[in-house]
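Please, does this match?
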Amino acid sequence: FKTVIRQTPQLSAGNNLGTRLAFDRDGYLYIAFGDNFHSSSAQDLDKLTGKILRLNQDGSVPKDNPFVSRRGARPEIWTYGVRNPQGLAFNPWTQQMWESEHGPRGGDEVNIPQKGKNYGWPLATWGIDYNGSNVPESKGSHVAGTEQPVFYWKRSPAISGMAFYNSARFPQWKNSLFIGALKEKSLIRLSVNGDKVVEAQRLLEDRNERIRDVRQGPDGYLYVLTDDDNGKLLKVGLAQDASASRG
């Protein structure tokens, strides 16, 4: 075993841990870390909390990372201003990285993280604090110098893992991004056109089960993991009339 990266500072709150991994087609490793309930740390470039990192496979830092030469900044950082990442996947048609994350109370969002950019948390958010007041550090939904999500929910479904659908088995799902929902207990299908989401649909709502993660199998079916004491792995496809899904 070899330690590739160690998260610092050490996590202590036990919340908003995030931590998702993805490789791009060039073999770089991306790691998304949550803010660990220390909101302001997502804006601090000397900390790894609330960031997406980019590493070589051996844990070394690529020379073209955006903050390699900035004094006081961690060179591993690719983007920052992230709250609690729950999904990380590469769009198979554009090769762009997409990320999904929990907002506070409302404001779950989907982003396309790009080199060196600030995704706002906690300065910019579409959600509010858990007690119903504004997030203390927030300056509104739009803040200069921060990026807007490509899609967001004012009411949080509590999104989880996500996967792009890239199979010919069910052509009705072409250009789709699937995301699980924990609180609203469904599988969300987002129709994607380039870097925009043009439609949203809910599936599996009748099952009333928390969806923790979703993956496309090599057979073209979706494999969906439920989050319960009696958790299940569901195989999901379209019925022949393309009007219903099955588990």
User: Anything to note?
Assistant: The two ends are 38 Å apart (CA to CA). Residues 241-247 have pLDDT under 50 and may be disordered. The CA atoms of residues 221 and 237 lie 5 Å apart. DSSP finds no helices and 16 strands in the chain.
